[in-house]
Amino acid sequence: EVSHLTDLLTEKRTYTMVNVNKAKFTENISVSDKEIADYYEANKNNYLQADKVKFSYIYLTSDDVKSDVHYTDDDLLNYYNLHSEIYTVPEKREISHILLTGDDAVEKAKEVKAKLDAGADFAELAKQYSQDPSSAQNGGRLPAFASTNQDKSIANATFALVKPGDVSDPVQSDFGVHIIKLNTIIPATSKTFSESKDDVIRRYVKQLSQEVFLDKRQIVSDISFENPDSLDLAAKEANASDKEHPSETVKVQVHDYIASDAKDLPFPFSEKAVMDKIFDPELRETGVNSDVIELGQNAFVVVHIEDYVAKTPKKLEEVKDVIKADISDEAAKSKIDEYVNGLLASLSKGESIENEVASGKITIDSPRTISRLENKVDEEVSKNVFELAHAEKGNINFGRYTGKNGDVYVLILDSVEHKAEQDVSRDDFLTQQITVMKSRADTFVLTDSARSDAKIEYNRTKKYLKNSSDKGE
Question: Which residues in 137-261 belong to E strands, given as ranges?
């Protein structure tokens, strides 16, 4: 099985592609007004005006309800006190350190500390001994930091020092062993409530608006479901949710007719979920409000269909040019089919078709060689190349296919080569894949068999056994 699959995957096919020039077959095709009129009458349903829907809707975002957030200075002051860390710049300390690494780092640190205790200059010893290249030449000096912005061991030792000039005992960290000297203490600073008030208002409103939004969303969801014939009551109840501060934030709006093929619609109607609901036949036929359509965490929309205009045939004058092009395409397709059948007949007789290139009706590409694993051609071309049957030795095989754009191609299979090189990792991978595939097939058979033999009973009484002695229930 692995060998057979390897042959298929590594098989190399050399082919020549013949491109049929469609434009050559649309030349000199004339279409009369009568042909257009007759074609229109026979194919009216192919030229329909898109169906249209008129609807009412509620669209709400968390930003829309910011004006519904009401507060006093006491509310803001409480928020300020609860979030004082936002308005406080913590104490920072600037230090110098000597970093020692290696197996003998502790012993070295003791020697350096003894020299410091004897009155040696910290900066000079840092230049001489510190193994932190970024700070050693600067006397070991580091930028100021808060306790939460530094390695825990270093921070604890730094903030345990009492005054500038104090030096720590050797401290172990993930980087090595440090001796730390406190240079400067930068006290913590706080903004007053008055200084912070604008920012407090912004944060408070943002937080509360999310709560107000969720509250109104739930009311709209519940009321629009309980009163499915209109969105008016849902909007009214949502606006009255804060009895002390009734609002008009939640509005029922009416959207004029939207066609099902409309492009470049504004948000939220550009969302597929919304358009699907607007043109949902069940929603239209029942005449009820839609469910809440979620648009992320901070927006939703609910719709109610007011009117529907079904698809109708376009007027002849609107589609005259389109019909003319369609008739021309069909006539050209017929000519191309006849021409390609002639090419295939010549190939089946072993005749060359290269003389047709001069007519401009075809171009012939240079031969290309591809495999299923390695090819840089269009997927559609590759698929059709590998669908061609092997030709008998000394012969070629050929076929035609029509691309997605309507262009027609003739594929000539020149040769098929089987020379799979040995590849242990590839064969191991294929072995694993085949094993997994077979295992899954076995599992499907087993589960299907179990399902067919299973007897399932539903406990419709909703009585549940408490223990083995309750089996009598």
Answer: 145-146, 171-173, 176-186, 189-190, 253-259
